[in-house]
C-alpha cells in the first residue's frame, strides 16, 4: 500500500516545466497594456482608457473565479457577490468618512474572506448541480440584502463623492492613474496565483479536480484545500470590487446579480478554464466584443451569443486552447 501511495505523492511534488517563451510573451503583453494610455492620448480617444480599465478589473475577477472553476472544478454561480461586497466596502466606508484606499481594501478583503469562509463551508458539503444552486442562493441573498439597505441607496445604488485617497493624497483621481493601479493589481494577482497553482497546494487542488476520492485515499482531504481556494478567490474578487467602485464612482446591487456571475463564468470559459492567461484573455475579449457590437446595434447581445456559441463549438479549450493548437501546428 505504501509503495502504491508513493507514486502519486511524487507526482504532486514534481515541479512543472519552465517555459521561458511564455514568460517573455507575458512580459510583452504587460508592456503593451502599459502603453494603452499613450496610444489613447495619441489618437484622441480617452474612452479607451476607461474601457481598458474595466477590462483589467474584470480580468482580476475572472482570475479569482478561474482558481475555483478552472483549477478546483467548483462552479460558483454567486461569485459576483464578492465583487459587490468589495464595492460596497468602499461605498459604506466613504459614507462614514473613511476614504483611504488601503483601509477600504483591507476591509473588503476581510469581509469577502469571511463571507467566502462561511458560505464555502456550507456549499462544499454539496456536489454538482446542488453546489451551483447553493452558491447562486448565497449570491442572491447578498444581492437582496444590499437592496434592502435604503441607507446606502437600496436598489438605486449610491454615488461616490470622489475616488478613494491613498494616504490622504488624491493619487487616483485621474483615469490614467486608476488604469495603472488596476494594471499593477492585476500583475500582482496574476503572479501570486501563478505561484499558488504551481505550488504543492495547486497541484493537490488539480488532483482533487481530477479524482477527489483517490486524493483522499493518499492523504489529501478535499474539503480544506477547496475551502482555502474558495476563500482566496473571494478575497481577490473583493479587490476587483474596490477598483470597480472607484472606476465607476457608483455602487449598485446590480454588481452582485446572478447575471454578473454568469458573465464572469463566460469570461473564464471563453478564455479557457484552468489557464490564468485564458481568464485575462476571456475578460478582454468579452468586454471588447460588447463595446464593439454595441456601437452597431442595440441588439448586440444576439450577436455576442452567436459568437460565443461558435467559439465553444469550434475552439475547444477557449482562446487559450485555440492559441495552443495554432502554436503546435506551426511547430509541426
From TrEMBL:
<feature type="transmembrane region" description="Helical">
    <location>
        <begin position="129"/>
        <end position="152"/>
    </location>
</feature>
<keyword id="KW-0812">Transmembrane</keyword>
<keyword id="KW-1133">Transmembrane helix</keyword>
<feature type="transmembrane region" description="Helical">
    <location>
        <begin position="105"/>
        <end position="122"/>
    </location>
</feature>
<dbReference type="InterPro" id="IPR043428">
    <property type="entry name" value="LivM-like"/>
</dbReference>
<feature type="transmembrane region" description="Helical">
    <location>
        <begin position="24"/>
        <end position="49"/>
    </location>
</feature>
<feature type="transmembrane region" description="Helical">
    <location>
        <begin position="80"/>
        <end position="99"/>
    </location>
</feature>
<dbReference type="GO" id="GO:0005886">
    <property type="term" value="C:plasma membrane"/>
</dbReference>
<feature type="transmembrane region" description="Helical">
    <location>
        <begin position="177"/>
        <end position="197"/>
    </location>
</feature>
<feature type="transmembrane region" description="Helical">
    <location>
        <begin position="300"/>
        <end position="319"/>
    </location>
</feature>
<keyword id="KW-0472">Membrane</keyword>
<keyword id="KW-1003">Cell membrane</keyword>
<dbReference type="Pfam" id="PF02653">
    <property type="entry name" value="BPD_transp_2"/>
</dbReference>
<feature type="transmembrane region" description="Helical">
    <location>
        <begin position="264"/>
        <end position="288"/>
    </location>
</feature>
<dbReference type="GO" id="GO:0015658">
    <property type="term" value="F:branched-chain amino acid transmembrane transporter activity"/>
</dbReference>
<feature type="transmembrane region" description="Helical">
    <location>
        <begin position="218"/>
        <end position="244"/>
    </location>
</feature>
<dbReference type="InterPro" id="IPR001851">
    <property type="entry name" value="ABC_transp_permease"/>
</dbReference>
<feature type="transmembrane region" description="Helical">
    <location>
        <begin position="55"/>
        <end position="73"/>
    </location>
</feature>
<protein>
    <submittedName>
        <fullName>Branched-chain amino acid ABC transporter permease</fullName>
    </submittedName>
</protein>
Amino acid at each position: 500500500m505504501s509503495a502504491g501511495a508513493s507514486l502519486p505523492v511524487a507526482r504532486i511534488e514534481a515541479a512543472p516545466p519552465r517555459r521561458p517563451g511564455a514568460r517573455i510573451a507575458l512580459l510583452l503583453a504587460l508592456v503593451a497594456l502599459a502603453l494603452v494610455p499613450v496610444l489613447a492620448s495619441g489618437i484622441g480617444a480617452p474612452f479607451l482608457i476607461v474601457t481598458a480599465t474595466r477590462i483589467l478589473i474584470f480580468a482580476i475577477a475572472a482570475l479569482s473565479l478561474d482558481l475555483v472553476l478552472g483549477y478546483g472544478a467548483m462552479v460558483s454561480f454567486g461569485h459576483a457577490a464578492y465583487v459587490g461586497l468589495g464595492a460596497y466596502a468602499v461605498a459604506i466606508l466613504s459614507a462614514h468618512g473613511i476614504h483611504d484606499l488601503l483601509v477600504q481594501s483591507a476591509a473588503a478583503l476581510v469581509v469577502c474572506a469571511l463571507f467566502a469562509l462561511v458560505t464555502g463551508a456550507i456549499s462544499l458539503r454539496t456536489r454538482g448541480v446542488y453546489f451551483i444552486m447553493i452558491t447562486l442562493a448565497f449570491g442572491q441573498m447578498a444581492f437582496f440584502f444590499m437592496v434592502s439597505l435604503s441607507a446606502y441607496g437600496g436598489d438605486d445604488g449610491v454615488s461616490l463623492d470622489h475616488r478613494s485617497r491613498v494616504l490622504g493624497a488624491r493619487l487616483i483621481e485621474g483615469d490614467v492613474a486608476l488604469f495603472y493601479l488596476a494594471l499593477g493589481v492585476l500583475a500582482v494577482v496574476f503572479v501570486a496565483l501563478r505561484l499558488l497553482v504551481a505550488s504543492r497546494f495547486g497541484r493537490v487542488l488539480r488532483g482533487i479536480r481530477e479524482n477527489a476520492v483517490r486524493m483522499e485515499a493518499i492523504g489529501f482531504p478535499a474539503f480544506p484545500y477547496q475551502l482555502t481556494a474558495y476563500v482566496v478567490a473571494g478575497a481577490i474578487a473583493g479587490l476587483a470590487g474596490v477598483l470597480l467602485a472607484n472606476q465607476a464612482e457608483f455602487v449598485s446591487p446590480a454588481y452582485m446579480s446572478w447575471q454578473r456571475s454568469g458573465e464572469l463564468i463566460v469570461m473564464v470559459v471563453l478564455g479557457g478554464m484552468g489557464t490564468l492567461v485564458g481568464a485575462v484573455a476571456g475578460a478582454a475579449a468579452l468586454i471588447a466584443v460588447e463595446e464593439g457590437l454595441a456601437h452597431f446595434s442595440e441588439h448586440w447581445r444576439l450577436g455576442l451569443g452567436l459568437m460565443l456559441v461558435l467559439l465553444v463549438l469550434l475552439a475547444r479549450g477557449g482562446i487559450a486552447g485555440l492559441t495552443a493548437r495554432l502554436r503546435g501546428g506551426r511547430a509541426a
